[in-house]
Amino acid sequence: GGPRRLLLVSNSTLHGGGYLGHCQQHIKSFLGEKVKRVLFVPYALHDRDAYARTARKKFESLGYGLDSIHESCDPVEAVRNSEAIFIGGGNTFRLLKALYDNSLIQEIRKRVLEDGIPYMGSSAGTNVATISINTTNDMPIVYPPSLQALGLVPFNINPHYLDPDVKSTHMGETREERIRQYHEEPNTPPVLGLREGAMLLVEGDKATLQGVTGARLFLRGKTPTEHEPGTDFSFLLIDSNLQNL
């Protein structure tokens, strides 16, 4: 075993770059040399074969073998035998439903939290690493049995966090307003808005903001705060109910 190790990336593609290009150095230092093969979970997209080909090409270019869980006849056994897990982006509801359908929630939790294998998520894969998918941007195109997710961290993340465009005449809700509405419900945990190009590295009880863009932190009943790369977010791991801060 070992402490939990998570790399939670906001997005898999950054403008001007290829798949996982903006975070490939982070991936290499995160997985290190001990990991030889990565178990990929492509459930968030409909065409799992094509998704696995894209991910395999990228990880092989970084020196890692990649097995896609959808190619395994026993997904639970694949998780139990994995050295590292990467869950890719797509539709968060589709992804979470497939994790429940394949009885993988507890298995992944055990491997990551008890056995200490590295977990990497991007976009929807980052959403499901948190307490719940309540703060996803996706449409509920399918109906998972619960919105509760893997719970690898005791708070929520909003990937692809967007700031309001001051020049826009669009009168619809901003992302900030939607998160505020979530926090109008009682006992809702913090929400970390990760902008594109940002990621959160969790090692045991330490969490650090990495990447090229910042993040916005929302605590229930508090004014949102702005944070630059390098910020220590370890306090978010201590207690999911931070309303007393």
* Main β sheet profile: 7 strands, mixed
Averaged pLDDT = 93
Distance between the termini: 32 Å
| CATH structural architecture | 3-Layer(aba) Sandwich
Helix content: 25-40%
Q: Are there runs of 5+ residues with pLDDT below 50, and where?
A: 240-245
CATH class: Alpha Beta
The CATH superfamily is Class I glutamine amidotransferase (GATase) domain
User: What fold name stands as the CATH topology?
Assistant: Rossmann fold
Secondary structure class reads alpha/beta
Query: How do the helices and strands follow one another from N- to C-terminus?
Result: EHEHEHEHHEHEHEEEEEH
The count of β-strands is: 11
Overall domain count: 1
Order of strands side by side in the largest beta sheet?
Answer: 3-2-4-5-1-8-9
Which band does the percent of strand residues land in?
A: 15-25%
Count every helix, treating DSSP H or I runs of 4 or more residues as helices. 8
The general outline is: globular
Radius of gyration: 17 Å
